[in-house]
Amino acid sequence: MKHKGYFAGATLLIGCLICMGFATIHNKPKKEHWVQLFNGKDIKDWNVKINHHDYNDNFGNTFRVEDGIIKVRYDKYGAFDNQYGHLYYKKPFSHFKLRVEYRITGDWKTDAPGYTIGNSGIMYHSQDPKTMLKDQDWPISVEFQLLCGLDDGKPRPTGNMCSPGTDIVYKGIIDDRHCIESSSKTYKKEEWVNAELIVLGDSLVTHIINGDTVLQYSKPQIGGGVVNNYDKNIKIDGKRLTQGFIALQSEGQPVDFRKVEILDLSEKKK
């Protein structure tokens, strides 16, 4: 009887361990499926729109791939002439997490507007670049602004929000400021920074810099100013932005992007 009890107890223990194993496997979280928007080789999956130029005219080879990096450069420009540019991924997104590794680098183009020193950005919920007019300076979109510190020693956070042709709700009200500063620390030029953007359609938006949440707001919508020479049929003020294109910015400051990846959260829509 003693031996039977021992084997019965052992059998029960083994059964429990097996059940626990199955439960662990069943409850194991699904692996996140991140998609590389930048393949490390070329920008064939991307489209270009630069102010004063036609759609997909990559004037001056502004956007190029070298050493596995998307580089934004102006060495083939004459005068800058407000030739702000954007490199758009080929398809729109609605609910997503976006991760980008970037660094502000090189010498600012001295005839560009002063605010563009050490300045770049990631646009999201942008209008389709095909709908932009030739002399439209900025896409109607929301910008995840990327800045580096200057030589004056003053704080200059990155991961800010700017709103060309749009509005957002911040702390419960529509905020009419063109840019809202984040709580990030200041990063130096030539320093690689990890930027993450979490966008849930037309509800909550979260900016993350090097793992720290630095800004949150909600309800991105068409409105505001700053954008010029647009098609009036596109700029419908008050229209909530539920989706749009993602773009990397050029505005007079060289910048490098070595990773651009996305996690589609569409299945999490309520």
UniProtKB/TrEMBL annotation:
**Key words, A-Z:** Membrane, Transmembrane, Transmembrane helix
InterPro entries under this entry? AL/BT2_dom (IPR010496)
Q: Which PROSITE patterns match?
A: PROKAR_LIPOPROTEIN
Write the protein's name: DUF1080 domain-containing protein
Q: Which organism is it from?
A: Mucilaginibacter gynuensis
Q: Which domain of life is it from?
A: Bacteria
Q: Which residue ranges run through the membrane?
A: 6-25
Q: Which Pfam families match?
A: 3keto-disac_hyd
Lineage, opening ranks = Bacteria, Pseudomonadati, Bacteroidota, Sphingobacteriia, Sphingobacteriales
